[in-house]
Amino acid sequence: MSGAPSIFRTVMGADFHRLHPQLQRRFSVGLAGGEACTGRGVMDRIWHGRGFVKPFLALGGTRNILVPRQGRNVPFVIENVPYTDTYGRETVTFVRTFDLPGGPRRFDAQMVLSPKGDRVLDYLGTHQHLASDLHFRAQPDGSLLIRSGEHRFREGPVDCRVPSLIGGDAEVRESWDEDAGRFRIQVRVTNSRFGPLFGYEGSFTATYTDVRTCGVRPGLRPVREEARA
Length: 229
What we know:
229 residues, mainly beta, 4 helices, 14 strands, globular
């Protein structure tokens, strides 16, 4: 972890060192360190909430936001690759590809540091129409808890906050399983009124590559990048 800290280490400050060493390495992915991380594993379960959420998930699926299908024992890959975006910001991809029956499905996110360095901005989908604030906290057992904050929708001149009535609050827990030698992840998205909307849980192993040699593969970056932080 030489050179400038990653965007995650920057936003967490001293709290970063409370993470398990395996999580510290994984969230040190960045341009200064020069490493990309690829996780490969299995989602034990991908689930949806009640039936009325399915049209929204299907709509989001057209722009690689959320996953409109359920499944068990689903192979998946997560690609965390740092690059400099069109606006000169260090960006780290969180592109998840789920090998579901009927064809693979992607859930795309690109993360950048906020201008004040106090939070991570999570741009969702192929066109970054949705943006969320993310807050990172180390837990007593060395795991990482990520919670979403305010959500915003941006398209052309439109820039508005997504009302809590139709928005979803995300909670991500990532940990290192010493016995299995694997990362474990659990994601849960809920609505304050309608309850659970979507989630998944599983485990994976990680490999690290030199991004200065491998670069960013075609199709990993979004189609459109959003300048507004």
